[in-house]
Amino acid sequence: MAAPAAPVFLLSGFLGSGKTTLLNTLLKAASFAHTAVIVNEFGEIGLDHLLIARGSDNVLLLEAGCLCCTIADSLHETLADLNFRKVRGEIPVFERVIIETTGLADPAPILNTLLGNRLVTDHYRLDSVVVTVDAQHALAGLDVHAEVAKQIAVADRLVITKGDLAAPPDELIARLDRLNPHAARFHSRDPTAALVAFAPGERHRLPKRFVPVHRHPDRQHFQRHDANIRADCFVLPQPPTWAGIAGWWRLVSETFGDRMLRCKGLLEIADTGDIVFVQGVQRVFHSPERLPDWPDADHRSRLVCITRDVDEAELRLTLRSFDAPAGTSPNLTLTDLQHGRN
Question: What is the pTM of this model?
Answer without folding.
Answer: 0.82
